[in-house]
């Protein structure tokens, strides 16, 4: 096996014409140069250098190897510099996937701080709700997934193979039209909305809504379902039903024509950042996780 260090010595011998001069150039001893040339010739399976008087000359095989060594060593140096840049966060890429309300609230703050601290790190963003976002992470289509889970500890989630970075707890709030009988109630029991038409959100949020309502003794009549939170608010404001939305989703949308109320029993979801154990060691990924956590803390 030909080693890069042997190629460097061969080039030095070829350019200086002797083992002793190559040793001075490389900062090592003449026996060390001689030993490395013997090892290189053994790996190549042929003679690479011959002595002509006081000079060492390349054989035809040696000339071929020196000619290729320039490109090999240049490529290796470039690779070493690129890896060093990534390790030092002077370069790097992170593929982030997030659910929409996370993309509009946590992500902008986190990525702005990341760019300010490490301008060489590039981040791409794609929207996807869990569990699809988690599948993308496991399939290698992203490096970090912003996701959520309902209930204490998210017992239904199988994330044992992932690094889970908890970010914040997000409470669900009720949304009713401005002229609704409960618009000024402040706090509403979910059972008080049993006879209402409902506007439901994403599939996972929809399942959670049905479970909460069933635990209160009724099955919600879902007239509309959409993943678009502004659309949910618009439908509620038009008097077409009521809804429950995460507080995080309300931060980037003005609920014009609708009122928020506290819903009991309280329903919460845990917002987390996920990555694979090996990816967690990559500096750019670790920095992204840190900035997401700081954004959530703010």
Keywords:
about 300 residues, alpha/beta, 8-stranded mixed sheet, two-stranded antiparallel sheet, 10 helices, 12 strands, about 45% helix, rod-shaped
Protein architecture, described:
- The chain is α/β, with parallel strands linked by helices and 298 residues long.
- The chain has ten helices and twelve strands.
- It has helices at residues 4-16, 19-26, 30-44, 60-87, 100-117, 132-138, 203-215, 229-237, 247-251, 283-297; strands spanning 49-52, 55-58, 92-98, 121-127, 144-150, 163-177, 187-189, 197-200, 221-225, 243-246, 258-264, 268-275.
- Strands 3, 4, 5, 6, 7, 10, 11 and 12 form an eight-stranded mixed sheet that branches. The protein has a two-stranded antiparallel ribbon with strand order 1-2. Strands 8-9 form a two-stranded parallel sheet.
- α1 crosses α4 (60-87).
- The chain is rod-shaped and about 105 Å long.
- The model has no long low-confidence stretch (mean pLDDT 90).
Structure, briefly:
The chain is of the alpha/beta class and 298 residues long. It is 44% helix and 25% strand.
Protein topology:
Blueprint: H1 4-16, H2 19-26, H3 30-44, E1 49-52, E2 55-58, H4 60-87, E3 92-98, H5 100-117, E4 121-127, H6 132-138, E5 144-150, E6 163-177, E7 187-189, E8 197-200, H7 203-215, E9 221-225, H8 229-237, E10 243-246, H9 247-251, E11 258-264, E12 268-275, H10 283-297
Parallel strand pairs: 3-4, 3-5, 7-11, 8-9
Antiparallel strand pairs: 1-2, 5-12, 6-10, 6-11, 6-12
Helix pairs in contact: 1-2, 1-3, 1-4, 2-3, 5-10
